Amino acid sequence: MTLPVTIILYIILASLVVFFSIKLADYVDLIDKKSDLSGAFIGGVVLAAVTSLPELFTSVSSVVFLKKPDLVMGNILGSNLFNECILAFLMVIWGRAFAKSVVGKSHTKTTLISLFLFVMMFLATYVGIDFSLLNISVYTAIIFITYAVSIKAMAGDTAENDEECTSTLTMKQIIIRFIIMAILLVTASILVTFVTDELAAKLNLGATVAGALFLGIATSLPELTSSITLAKKGNFNATVGNIMGSGMFNFTILGLADLLHRGGSIYASEGSKMLVLFGTIATILVTGTLLLKGKNKDNTKLSLVYRLSGLAILACYVLFIVLS
Q: Less Cβ crowding at N or C end of the chain, within 10 Å?
């Protein structure tokens, strides 16, 4: 394929990912309103897992078929940084609404765990600390354990969405539509992987940079579109859960990719240093924001603080692009 055709195909597939993600967000909001499940669990586990399916399938494809683990590191860490920029964007645009919203305490715990995992990535890439037990990296084992802990925290969260549901769809109809959209989203995401690899080759980009820019952004479009959709509905609990829960799920994908990779640990990636650095800084800012939010559940006077925090997180992504 020529470069223009490849770019057009990339845009078409990315557009399909956006459409399917919007529909998924609509159905998740309905499930939140119609079921007795915790809103934090629905956003942080159910929606987060589905919107992270692109990262899952693209990462597995990158390791198994393309044999490019650096593409996985760029994809996952780039997606996590981009996801936090989504939250930052929402805080900048809807600062007052975010200040007035109810956000579950479990999201702060999830963010703290995510920060801990970023610190581990820092040790692997900058310090070179990495060792294996039974041919499994210790980081992989820690990732799976911490994800289980975050799921337990979100399942027990008490912050709920009290809005009345006006939809005439039954729960069974909603779930069927949700599953169909998820399958279509996965299909489009797998195709994006191969188109991104083609773009990287034609533009002479490194695997990590291509993964962070083209693949990381494309696979983060579900989080972007679903989060904006939920924010417009005022459901910031599910929004934050989706973004931070997706980040945690992404780390488990990194662990899975490490298990599937036969060439040693994937964590000590030289090309991921900038992503790890700015991802860690952005996660610290998100953690501080959610801690402040937890102590001030409904204080519109803090909307400016949230907006400034959002701008600082967005600056991390800009600096990553410039310095890369």
A: N
203-237: pLDDT as tens digits: 776 656 666 667 667 767 777 888 888 888 888 88
CB 75 within 8 A of CB 62: yes
User: What is the residue whose two structure tokens read 């609990």?
Assistant: 237
Examine the pLDDT at 96 and tell me if it is beyond 80. Answer: yes
Contacts 24+ apart (CB under 8 A), 294-298: 294/103, 294/105, 294/108, 296/99, 297/102, 297/103, 298/99, 298/100, 298/102
Higher pLDDT, 301 or 145: 145
Max Cα–Cα distance, the chain, nearest Å? 56
Question: What does the pLDDT read at residue 200?
Answer: 73
Radius of gyration from C-alpha coordinates of the chain: 19
Q: Any idea which residue has 């802990």 for tokens?
A: 149
pLDDT on residue 319: 94
Task: Report the DSSP beta bridge partners of residue 137.
Answer: 132
DSSP per residue over 79-146, as a string?
HHHHHHHHHHHHHHHTHHHHHHS---THHHHHHHHHHHHHHHHHIIIII----EETTEEHHHHHHHHH
- pTM, whole model, 2 decimals? 0.78
Gap between the Cα atoms of 297 and 284, Å rounded = 20
Identify residue 301 by its one-letter amino acid code: K
DSSP 39-68: HHHIIIIIIHHHHTHHHHHHHHHHHHTS--
The 10s digit of each residue's pLDDT in 59-86 is 887 788 877 787 788 888 988 998 899 9
Separation CA 55–CA 61 (nearest Å): 10
Q: 80: closest CA among 48, 106, 108?
A: 48
Handedness of CA 264, 147, 225, 180 (dihedral sign): positive
